[in-house]
Amino acid sequence: MALGADRYASRGDTLVFLGCVLLSVAAMSLPARIRDPLARGLRQTVLAPFLALQQQIERLSASLARYDAVVSQRDSAALAATFLPELRGENARLRSLLGLGTRLSSGYVPAEVLQAPEPSSPLTFLVSAGKQQGVKPLSAVVSPDGLVGVVSTVDAKTSVVVSWAHPEFRASAMAADGSVYGIVAPHGTDGPRVWLLELQGVAYRQLVANGTAILTSGLGGVLPRGIPIGTVVGVAGEAEGWERTYVIRPAVHPAAVTHVMILTGTPARGDLRSVFQSSGETP
Question: Could you confirm whether domain 107-277 is CATH 1.10.600.10?
């Protein structure tokens, strides 16, 4: 019974299709004065719901296309707004670095940080300059804000820089007015203390006020004189009657550095204090 019903339904569909074809041929063969009014009547009666549905579908498709375009524009604008502060900050840092190079005039090599220091590993990082650019071990690595570290190992085109956070980092330092001298070293080896420095070996009778700028002294011939190291923020400890140790907030955070200057020779100016003071970063 089911097969017979399907056969009869298939025959019915075929007959309907043939009837539609015959009606179409007959309508096309009618004269224009009869065919056009007949077509108009069909469009206004039988086909009117279908035509309205087609218009709604086309409007919906156009609305969806406009919606997708608006969403795409909004996402592009949001993405651009996300990166805009970072790009502005990067441009400002590059301008400062170019200004520092102009003031140094000679004896330096610009380099890009290839392996940025992370909060979990702030001790060393890789830069894009080596022996071919004239870099030597123990060369000072600076940014427009001050001292970043010193070169530890030099390859042909890259170098490993030891930041001031390394436990073995030491630098001969002085107060900005030259009244106090000492040795700068990391304040700690782990935790929050690793982001601070300390000024050791200050005579007990010499007091260093908070806010005093600490610079490299040039003693020992490793680091040039006058590079900003940081600012005194307090007393770390004291040996009564002998010496005091002061805590220093560094001028440069290694994780914020993307480009540096490597000092490859004796600067044209023996004292770099005026070079860094020109950028307004130190008092």
Answer: no
The DSSP code for 243 is: E
CA distance 194 to 173: 19
- For residue 13, count other CB atoms closer than 10 A to its CB: 10
Residue with structure tokens 């218009």? Answer: 55
Mapping DSSP to helix (H, G, I), strand (E, B) and coil, where does residue 258 land? Answer: coil
pTM over 0.70: no
Helix axis angle, 2-29 relative to 32-44, nearest 10°?
Answer: 130
- Contact of 161 with 180, CB cutoff 8 Å: no
Summarize pLDDT for 208-262 with one digit per residue, the tens.
Answer: 999 999 999 988 888 999 999 999 998 887 766 688 899 999 999 888 888 899 9
Record the tokens describing residue 90, joined without a space. Answer: 């990067």
3-state secondary structure of 242: coil
3-state DSSP assignment of residue 62? helix
With CA atoms as reference, report the closest residue to 155 among 111, 191, 120: 111
Question: How many helices, marked H, and strands, marked E, lie in the chain?
Answer: 4, 12
- Taking the domains of the chain in order of start, what are their residue ranges? 107-277
